[in-house]
Amino acid sequence: MKIMEDVSVVSQEKVAFQTHLLRLSAGRISREARLGQFLMVQVRDGTDPLLRRPFSFHRIDAEQGVVEILYRVVGRGTWWLSQCDSGARLRIIGPLGNGFQLPQCGPAPVVAVAGGIGIAPMMQLLEKLAQWLAPSGKTREIHLFYGARTAEEFIPGKAFDTLGITVHWSTDDGSRGHEGFVTRLLEDTMRREKIKPCVVYSCGPLAMQYHVARWALENGVPSQLSLESLMACGLGACLGCALPAVNPAAPQEEHYLHVCKDGPVFKAEMIQWHKIQTHPATPPIFLFS
Amino acid sequence: MAQNSNAPGDTPDLSVQLGPLRLRNPVMVASGTFGYGEEYEDFLDLERLGAIVVKGISLRPRPGNPPPRIVETAAGMINAIGLENVGVDVFLKSKLPHLQRLQVPVVVNIFGNTLEEYAQLAAKLDGVPGIAALEINISCPNVKEGGMVFGTDPLMAARVVQVVRRATALPLITKLTPNVTRIGDIARATVDAGSDMLSCINTVAAMAVDIFSRRPKLANVMGGLSGPAIKPIALRCTLEVLREVHCPVIGIGGIATPTDALEFLVLGARAVQVGTANFVNPSVTTEIIEGMERFLRVEKIARLEDCIGTLDTQCLFPFAEIACELTDLP
Model ipTM? Predict the structure, then answer.
C-alpha cells in the first residue's frame, strides 16, 4: 500500500562532497518499505519547486520507525532539502516501485556497481547479502565496484570494512583507486579474475548503467539495475518517467516502461539502451543561478 | 450571494447541476492526471469526487513520445507525454469495470487522428453502462496529427463535434485549447455543432532549454505548460468562453487550492477539474472539497450553486463615487 505520511526530520548530516544523509521518523512507511523501492519528498511548501523529488531508500529500519535517504545536492529541490534541520516537517509518499530481489541462484559471487550517489540504495542491500553469505564464509565474494568523479564524493569507507566485502574503487581523476570509469574496472576485473557472478546489482547515472547493461548481456549475467528519470507523480499517473523498452510480444514496435511503476529496478534486457538520452551533469556553480 | 442563516452544524450543499449531470460536488479530476482512478485509491475515496475524467483514450493503443517527457518550470511543469494510452478495447475490458462499480460519474476523454476515428470511438463508447459523458480532446499540443490541429480552427473543431454528436447520445464536453487568438470563436463553433458543455483550458504550448547541452529539455521540443503558473490564463479564457456561450463550462488550469477552485465558480464555471496538483498531492481533491465546505460555512451560504457566476465586474471601484463628491468632479 502507498502511504502519504507527514514525517519529521530526526537528523541531517553532510557525509561527503555535496552529499547529505537525512533520517526521517516515518513509522508507517518504514513498515511497508522494501530495499530498492523509493519515496517522493515534498521539499517545502508552496509552488517552488512545484513537484516532489524521488529518492531511493538508503536504509529502512522498521523497528525504529526510521527511513534514511542519502542524496546529492544537484538542483533547487535537493538544495531546499539540505536546509531542513532536525524537527522539520516533511510530507512524503511511499513506498513506491518494485525494489530489489535477492539472488535466485548462487549464493555467490555477487556484483554490485555504484556510480556516485548511486551508492544510496546499495548499502543496506550489501549488508543483507553479507549476512546471508556469512554462514558459508563467502562474504568476500561480494564485489562492490564503487566509482565517483573524485575521491571526496565517496561516502566514508568504514561502513564497507565491517561488512567484509571486496570493494573496488575508481575515480575519474585517479584520486582514489582505479583512474577511469567504474564500468571499465568492472569488465577488466571480471575478465582477469575469471569471476562469473550470479547477479549484478547496479545504480548510477544512465551512461554508467548502459555499460553495466552491455557487460551483463554479453556475459549472460542476470541484472537488477535501479534506473532514474524525472517524474512528476511517482504513482503511474503522469506517465512522465517513461524509458524506451523492448516489447517482448512485438520487438520492432515502439514501447515504453515507466520507472515509477515498472521499476525502478529493471533487467538489462528490458530496456532499449540505444534510445536512451543522457544529459551531461549541470556544473555545480550554475545550480542556483 | 444569497445569504442564509443556516445553523452551524448544517452541512452546506456542494452539489451542482452540470448540464444533464448532477454532481455531488463540482470537483472533477482532469484527464491525464489521474490515470484510470485506481492509481489514487490508496490516497482518497474516489466516490467523494464530483466526477472522474480518465486518461485520453484512442481507437488503438499509443506508445507515447520518447523521453524526456516532462520538465519542471516556475510554479508549473511542461509535459509532452504524447497521449500514451492502452486503447479503447483494453480500456473497456480491464479499466472501466472497476470504475463502473463505484458511485461516481465517469467521463471518458477521447482523441482521434482523423474525424473517422473520433466517430468510431464515440460509437464504441455509446451505450456502455457507467459512462456519464464524453470529453472530446481537440486540444492536445503534443501530437503531430490531429490534436490541437482540430482545436485551433473553428470549422475543424465544429466538424469533430458534429461527427461525435452523430455517433453517440452521450452528453458531450469539448475541451478547448488556450493556444488560439480568440477562444470564444472555438467555443461558439463547438456549441453550435452540438457540444453540450465545454471544458477549458488544456495546457499552454511551451518549451524549455538546457544551456549546457544546447538542447530542448523535452525530446518533443515543445510541450504543454500546466500547474499554478497558468491559472490566470485559464481564468481569462474561461471568462471569454462564458461571455460567448450559455452552456455549462468546466474550469481547468492551475487549480491547487479551494480558493483556486472557487475563483472559477465565481466567474461562472459550473465545475472545475484539478490536474497537475494531483501529482504533487494525491489527496488534494479531498482537501479542496473540504475547503469549499469551510468557505460556505464562513460565508453562511447554504448552497454552492448560489456562488456560481457571482463575479461583479461593475463595481470595481467602490470608493469612486465618494471620491468624486469629495473632489467635486463630475
Answer: 0.93
